[in-house]
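Student: Hello, beginner here. Can you help me understand the protein record under this note? Any guidance would be welcome.
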Amino acid sequence: MADTGPDLRPIQVFLDTKRFIEKEEPQPFGGGSKDFFAGNNAAFAEHKAKIKKRVENVADSLRRSNQPGGFIKVRQREEALAKSHRPLGSLFTQSNRFGLVGAEGVGELLFQATPSALDRLANIIETKAELIPRIVQNKKTGKNEPRVSGYRSEVGGIEDIRLHSATDRVKFSSEEAVLWMRQPNVIGGYIVELFRPDPNIGATEMELLIRNFRQGLERLKGGLLVRPFLPSTSTTQFGEPSLALSVQLTADNSRRLIDLPFLADGRSAEMSEASLPTEMRETRADLTVSRHDELLAFLAEQGLVRSVELPPILETTPAMNGAILGRAKIPEPIAGADYPVVAIIDGGVTASAMLDKWKIGDAGLVPEQDRDEAHATFIAGLVSGASAFNPQLSAGLEPTGCKFFDFDLFPRRELRSQYYPDIEDLFDILDEKVKVAKRDHGIRIFNLSFSIGQRSSRLAYSLAADRLDRIARVNDVIFVVAAGNLPSAANRPPWPDKAGDAAIMLAGFGTQDQQITAPSEHVLGITVGAVNPLGVAGHQHLLPTTYTRRGPGVGGARKPDIAHYGGANVSGNSQTGLISLTPGGDAMHNCGTSFAAPLAASTLATLDQRLERQSPRETLLALPIHRAKRPDALNKPPLRHVTRDFVGFGIAPVADAILNDEPHSVTLVFSERLLAKQRLEFAFAWPRSLVNSDGSCRGRGDVTLCYTPPIDPDHREEAIRVQLEAFLHQENIDTKTGELSWDSQLKHDSAEVPQGMKKTESYLIKTGLKWTPIKRYQALMPQGRGNTSNWRLSLESLVRAGVSFPTEGVQFTLILTISDINEKAPVREEMRLDLQNRGIVLADITIAHRLRPRRSP
């Protein structure tokens, strides 16, 4: 179905990216430990005494509560967030009998500890963290300088130390819990996350904690269902899951099952297909407040318990009563033609003569009498005929429809708890049916417009997101997830035209209640926000809708990743500007991020089809983000740092525009696996037509990086364990000394300062510039920059403190576009000719996979 006209200029893929990967040069040691109290020894003495007292108080608390061990939270100072300042080298070490078991927020580390280990730590702080630094001579300068030990540095970098307490574990009352559980679409019981004990540290004490927890559960009277959340064994190759339980009080006293997710040494137990016995599958929840009060009080005092969350509710956006426009019609697919395919994970698409021609199969999970088909049918209409239904939006929609697979996962709202005893059951079935859809139909793009509405204290990387990422990775697929809708009462006013007015409007709304909901914070897929369509009065085209939720994602990651038309929610008006199908076959207006997601999914599926379904996941993810643009109104300085939380990197064009360049630009794609202690470096000459007579270079450079990092859900906001960073350096010659230097020329997308300038770790994290798996950069040089045309694109890696780089490496895709801002210079042909003269093998992206072996997922 792709246009194969002679004027297409496909972007270029390197067939031999490995030739640019080399051994990383060892970096020189930075010159000693940082003194966070430099020049103020009196303040350090006071701080040292405070930290020592905190450690002693934690040890005393454990002894008073007769706990053999516990878990402590160590919070770093803002200026000590970098990995080099973590207290892992001198204080909280294995030799001192501490184990790092996770993190909460950024710089909030969780350690396994015992009273005796804490006593020893207090003594170490007292005797080894010196009050007065020693004076040493700097061999380079000859000057005397103060130097501090690792003990003083690490003590100085700590803000606070305290025991993980009951208030950290449970943040709601039993009355609130029972009220929540009365909702008809609640799935399962409480989600209880446990700490994963380190078997190498205090094994005897940890075994006692586990035994006490099990015995305490057994002493609870009445019906009780305790089941572990463990992913299928095929996904554990990607790291350990969280140790989590579903804990549900049941009305039948004879129905009791207590199954914990670990062995005594802390290793995960393996889950089998029949892990939940049949007789436990139709249990009725006991909503007696006194029983819930007893259970929550028990869980709040258990040292092994990390957090207790309310059960999730499985929610899809209800179809609104939009304007009905009469009988609908979409073009029929051409017999025998190869179409892109999107799997629609939803409540089932209605059977109709019109849509059945675009349907290639179904999961067969929910019978017709148990369905509510309005939501999925509207989505199917957009997947198959968005451009036909919405001609006024056709420039931003795929011109040819996609076929769809009806992945009918959700019954009607009131039946969901009957179908799925807990969300682990839901994800088990999702995993199984994704495998079938991929095997039988080659489907790689799965649209998922549901949320797990969990009133949660947990801010990052939910259990649902972890499961979704595992399924995506093991099956080599991409989930496209809706960012979620605000409740009607929480909708914002229409986005103002002026940036200053928009900033004032947003200041009136808190961020917490407007944030994206699980699983849209997933790391290895795409999350989609909603923007206004064209032609809706009072709702400016391409600006965020009143209802779309905001990011960021895990550790400041850009979420949503992109945005698309979602329809405008117009007060008192049923015309939203986005039209699709009703189950009865009529055309109808509707709105929601649920309907923005399938438009983005259609573009991804079309990219996958154009690339013959052989392109790496990272390339499919990177391509639309590389080409995405935000409207000028969202790039104004008062808004630039905020709007990325609503529209991400922007709105992507259609697939054929993504895959092709104009004559004044060239796009190069690198895709490979980076191993430990390796870096990529690609040296090249800036296009001749963009080099000024003085050697300075003008034009624009755009760089996008997408990689698949190891993820550890126990570290929540710090779940992403490997950082890759791209650089674009220009060689410069000092005109006075003749010395050469390589200057970074990139700015991170929507960042305030150029790459390479000194920025705090906190700034890098909060702005999504570090520890995020999708990054975009640009260099804008309208007049010219530097004095030579020698450039190099590089890729480097970094791991979290205490983490080893994966032995199998990290798969990445790196995209570079060079273009003439004036749209005149023959950049594409100059670059292609220069690279070919160097013996570098390039291929059009549409056929590159045929010329090299495909990697395994």
Summary: The chain is about 25% helix and 25% strand. The first strand starts at residue 12 and ends at 14. The two ends are 27 Å apart (CA to CA).
